[in-house]
Amino acid sequence: MKIGFIGLGNMGAPMARNLLKAGHAVRVFDLDAQAVQALVDAGAQAAGSPKAAATDAECVMTMLPAAAHVRSVLSADDGVLAGIAKGVTIIDSSTIDPASVKAFAELAARHGNSFVDAPVSGGTGGAAAGTLTFMVGGSASAYEEVKPVLAAMGKNIVHCGDTGTGQVAKICNNLVLGITMAGVAEAMSLGEALGIDAKVLGGIINTSTGRCWSSDTYNPMPGVIDSAPSTRGYTGGFGTDLMLKDLGLATDAARFAHQPVYLGALAQQLYQTMSSKGAGRLDFSAVIKLYRDDGRDASNSNGGGA
Amino acid sequence: MKIGFIGLGNMGAPMARNLLKAGHAVRVFDLDAQAVQALVDAGAQAAGSPKAAATDAECVMTMLPAAAHVRSVLSADDGVLAGIAKGVTIIDSSTIDPASVKAFAELAARHGNSFVDAPVSGGTGGAAAGTLTFMVGGSASAYEEVKPVLAAMGKNIVHCGDTGTGQVAKICNNLVLGITMAGVAEAMSLGEALGIDAKVLGGIINTSTGRCWSSDTYNPMPGVIDSAPSTRGYTGGFGTDLMLKDLGLATDAARFAHQPVYLGALAQQLYQTMSSKGAGRLDFSAVIKLYRDDGRDASNSNGGGA
Amino acid sequence: MKIGFIGLGNMGAPMARNLLKAGHAVRVFDLDAQAVQALVDAGAQAAGSPKAAATDAECVMTMLPAAAHVRSVLSADDGVLAGIAKGVTIIDSSTIDPASVKAFAELAARHGNSFVDAPVSGGTGGAAAGTLTFMVGGSASAYEEVKPVLAAMGKNIVHCGDTGTGQVAKICNNLVLGITMAGVAEAMSLGEALGIDAKVLGGIINTSTGRCWSSDTYNPMPGVIDSAPSTRGYTGGFGTDLMLKDLGLATDAARFAHQPVYLGALAQQLYQTMSSKGAGRLDFSAVIKLYRDDGRDASNSNGGGA
Amino acid sequence: MKIGFIGLGNMGAPMARNLLKAGHAVRVFDLDAQAVQALVDAGAQAAGSPKAAATDAECVMTMLPAAAHVRSVLSADDGVLAGIAKGVTIIDSSTIDPASVKAFAELAARHGNSFVDAPVSGGTGGAAAGTLTFMVGGSASAYEEVKPVLAAMGKNIVHCGDTGTGQVAKICNNLVLGITMAGVAEAMSLGEALGIDAKVLGGIINTSTGRCWSSDTYNPMPGVIDSAPSTRGYTGGFGTDLMLKDLGLATDAARFAHQPVYLGALAQQLYQTMSSKGAGRLDFSAVIKLYRDDGRDASNSNGGGA
Lengths: 306, 306, 306, 306
Description:
The structure is a homotetramer.
Chain A: E1 2-6, H1 12-21, E2 25-29, H2 33-41, E3 45-46, H3 50-54, E4 59-62, H4 67-75, H5 80-83, E5 89-92, H6 98-110, E6 115-117, E7 120-121, H7 123-129, E8 132-137, H8 140-151, E9 154-161, H9 165-193, H10 198-206, H11 213-216, H12 240-256, H13 262-276, H14 289-292
Parallel strand pairs in A: 1-2, 1-4, 2-3, 4-5, 5-6, 8-9
Antiparallel strand pairs in A: 7-8
Pfam families (chains A, B, C, D): NAD_binding_11, NAD_binding_2
GO molecular function (chains A, B, C, D): 3-hydroxyisobutyrate dehydrogenase activity; NAD binding; NADP binding
Domain 3-hydroxyisobutyrate dehydrogenase-like NAD-binding (chains A, B, C, D): 164-291
């Protein structure tokens, strides 16, 4: 299949590689010439603009930082919609707000194209290994159409419902994630202050009603789970600023839906505090530093920027 | 073994029955004569006071609502310490604050007795089935001693560390639980408002990083998990007022430890709001009513008191 | 002076009238023809577009609901910038985010115009009476230039600093306001539950360290302050949805500044809860209903929409 | 009048001095012999026990750290009730929970004595100057009786209602205070981050709807109010740990009344964070350090303990 691919960042680059590996012809565009060259070296064709990437494509994928980029990539003079043939489907794997998805889908529909939201979970590791989860929003037929393309990059391709529900699924999952991680951080820190061994406490929570991914897989207290970022100085993993972005999407979506999110809004402020202390690039489980150390350590580990 | 058992409420009564079933001789005391009679009918002996229950016992168990009751049962003129022989261990399965446990252990030590905290999880169902989890705080030798007794009532007997750490484990687990449940309630309600199917959203969260007991076993949105209280009108299960009690213990313990618990304190206010609306006896997952319905439904289901 | 005035809503209309009363020649534009006609009846000239309103004007004022409207009114084909003469100052009294102000100021500068932010406080009453407070962001010379114009509509014209600081001042003040009102609501409700007379409690707070505008002028408990909206069923005053808009601006600005606003984010959720219950048009002091009544009363008073 | 006075701490000592200055005969007791000697030097008589201080007294005053101390001073074998004559009124100026006040009043009533709660505001400065505010809970006749005694130590003697309402008034006022201070800290810090001059912002808030004691008298941003603790390194003033104690009383009272206090509970966690960083003895307005500095500065100024 001829696929146009726009956005070759930490996630997009390995995803495009997996499309190549699956035998697709991939034409790539990114503002970063080095990122483009690396894909060309792997067998992709370089495109000079989103429009060029979309021309003659049988499918177009975008993987971009925010809704403003998607809008521009779609509708600029040299954008996707200027080049794409009628009837070709656009798959956007960026994490953006559901309202923008609907607006982009309407825009695409006016050009005779389907627009499917397919945000991912699984991180850069999953992108490289081709084991991402895709949360797909779109009609049943659009889902069936994009499924084989996405299968080259992920192992779970879940149909969430109509256009926009892929983003809703991702936002709601990450809302739970942001809250449970901070909640586990509070409880593990309280337990430490009250004198219980962290491994023992982790073991009890993980076999009891407090059980959750944030505790049994990604416990924020160093030493409880060997493979968790907490045990390697909060490096790698899912950055605090990325969690902050997703909680921002969640609280914004809640605002427009007139839906309260008490704990989500408070958790957002906790990650914001970490970010303001220069720890935005640490794994988000570093939020436990707000409870355990005094603030002077918040940016101590590597990864903590300016 | 001769066991004195004090406190025959919803939890204590089935626990004492399981001790009888295991072949122990159980002497029981409760202020409620009917509760005592029911145990006598099952083979127990009635005692006229905690002191009488403790006299000649080889082990004494207490299962009471709060620290004040434990204090009184121990140290009143006709209390346990007035009757118990030196060297006999007292096991307290009440859920109380760790500081009180330490005070009671010192009091018992002055009388030549060990005091072991062994709060439970598993609810009235687990108490009846003999499948409770006991979180045990005490010396390694005290743990070895009480383990066979507790094994008649539970299937997981976990040694948490020194005196008081059983309570710490329970409080910290339930702190996570109270936060994750309210977090899942926010996310499921937000998803509903944004138009995603609840079962689909639950399915995604339960196989992703938002995965937690509050979602995959006890999801607060009706219809997602068939066996959850949410699917039967929030009846049975773990009452809101009990969650409120445990979050109260957690935030109090945090206060004395000078340890912040932001999300825990906020979650406490959410359950408090439910309780103030008359929903204190509904399962704690009914907290989702704060997000989905207007308040008029908070006390609609049975179980909602005055 | 010849003044172009765009935006004749609840605030803009009386402001434009006061400009007429002060002897200015005012050319008005609004999408609502009735609103335009009412001003024409009062002596204004009607303009067919923002461009027409700006043509030949010596000063242009805008008073619009949100940044998107300001952007469109400025830069559309028939917008202000298409008609305004070089060197003429644009005063925007809308309440919008400081980042948009800066973008608009740059846009205006490229056309040779100054753009001054001058959001107001004082409500529709102050707009009618000409007693508004204007918080002005811009250079010292721009401030001196706009001051006489604004003086026809307000009695306090405060220079806050450079472009955008007028919005910052308004957002920060209303952040304090939203928090103190909810805080007073909590305390007055707690006092009521604990048995103290509301007037006595109000009197003590108002002469003590809890003293604040939300208590001594606008107390949310009915009967404490005779002139407050709480004493007339929470009608009139400053609507919950307007407070929600301003807290949204504050938390958004905080997000972009990587600055935590714990209490602001939580207060926002409280007003959001009111809005989700249909009480968005009640005065914002109705937030006390979350604490005093069960939710069934949240939309009882008039003003509470669907 | 012969007055027994128990509790000669930072507040009690200057209060007792003012009773002496007013011509009363004061018999004092404190566990700290130095504190007693200082009062004896000023003209008081030393008593060897609370009982001795109460014997022959026409009025007994207590000023103690917490309810447990009041209970012990009243009911110990050598306590006040063992020495006091029937009909003599006990005035307790400690800040304690209203439920304890009611219990103490019942205890006193059984001995034929009235117990009046009269907590104060005004700090050590007000205690020395004799300008405290007393919030009095008790019958109208008890109020009339204690008023002349209290007038020697304060200038506002306010009758709040029945027994316990003095404490309710104090707790509710300080709940508002704790919230508004943290709210002003958020807003001033946000304003600073967004580039407005702090003095300008303070001036706007103080003449607008955000006006409050925490801003116009005690602004937490250094340099805004010359006489505020923020301008002298957060020394003196009202300590963070004292605010924490009062917010603890407020949230506990709310728990027992089944009354939510969202912002109060969150504010409590903010002050708790300060205390856990070693800043418990700084003025409570130092909470702004959570927003402005990274944590390393929280305990920088003098006053930051352990």
